[in-house]
Amino acid sequence: MSPTPQRTEDLAEEILPDRAEPAAVPDADDAAGSEAAKEDAAAEAMTAEKDAAAEGDAAAEGDGTGSAGGRLAGFAAWRGRLIGAVVAMAAAGAVAFGVIQWMSADRLADRLSTEKAERLAVSTRAGEFAVALQTYDYNDLQTYRDHVFNLSGEDFEKTYDQAFSPLESVITAMRASSTASIRGVYVGEVAEGRAKAITIVDSQVKSTAGTRRLLGTYMELGLIKIGGQWKVNDATVMGAADELLTDPDGKEITQPEPSPSPGKKKDK
To answer: Which stretches are tagged as biased composition: Basic and acidic residues (predicted)?
Structure first.
């Protein structure tokens, strides 16, 4: 059976939405209330904008104050760091100065100690040489010679061979022996491995001729440093302050007074 045909009007009614009902027309009271509500909303909006602006200004002022406070705090912190750095530098400078002073004092003390040790070594060697040169025994002149050479340099060894060697035969013939003791040593300049010294020695020589006492014999010595040791390289006898002679029996021998020099008038 064939379907029943629908009318075009019925299909249109099914497809199209429900027809809207006519809108209600608001009355006068409702319109007035709506206008008042709009005015209230506008007033509230303006108040909210003013409050927001005031808050923004306050926040801006707060930010400005905070920024200024931050700058002051930063300056104070920078100033504190600067003062701390200056104090630290001053302390470091004081410590460095103290270290330099200590090092200088230490070097000065070392130099003075070295100079003192050198002068003491010169004095000791000069005294040893002066006593050795005036201490001998005719029975063993070789030992005497070796002892003197052990304390002297090459230049004095040559001088000894020229001046003292000829006296060895006289010492042996007179059976002479001598003893000596140091009275004093004066050290002069000590520099660059060279030194000067003056010795004062008391000595006594006994022989077949009698006894000879020499008191305060001055001798000038020149020393050089060889192999880390001081050696006497030259010696000059300057004479004795006093001399006493006695014969083998102990009787004093009077020495004749020196004759006046030629051309010198004798006192009346």
So the answer is: 36-53
Split the chain (268 residues) into runs of 10 and give each run's mean pLDDT.
44 42 46 54 59 54 52 65 72 70 67 87 96 95 94 92 86 95 95 95 95 95 95 93 89 66 45
* Cβ-proximal residues to 91 (8 Å cutoff; 6+ apart), any chain: none
185: how many CB neighbours lie within 10 A of its CB? 19
- Amino acid, res. 71: R
Spatial contact of 152 and 129, defined as CB atoms under 8 Å apart: yes
Cα 34 to Cα 52: distance, rounded to the nearest angstrom: 27
Q: Given the DSSP bridges, would you call strands 229-246 and 136-137 parallel, antiparallel or unpaired?
A: unpaired
- DSSP one-letter code for 250: S
Rounded CA separation 132/122 (Å): 15
Q: How far apart are CA 226 and CA 194, in angstroms?
A: 10
Helix (H) or strand (E) holding 236: strand 229-246
CB proximity list for 229: less than 8 A, separation 6 or greater? 125
CB neighbour burial string for 141-152, b if at least 16 within 10 angstroms, e if fewer? beebbebbbebb
Interatomic CA distance for residues 23 and 51, integer angstroms: 41
Query: In residues, how long is the chain?
Result: 268
**Backbone phi, then psi, for 242, in 5-degree steps?**
-150, 145
The token pair at 40 is: 């209230």
Element (H, E) at 178: strand 177-191
Of the candidates 184, 247, 238, 182, which has an alpha carbon nearest to the alpha carbon of residue 212?
Answer: 247
Instruction: Write phi, then psi, for 101 (nearest 5 degrees).
Output: -60, -40
What are the tokens at 27? 């009355």
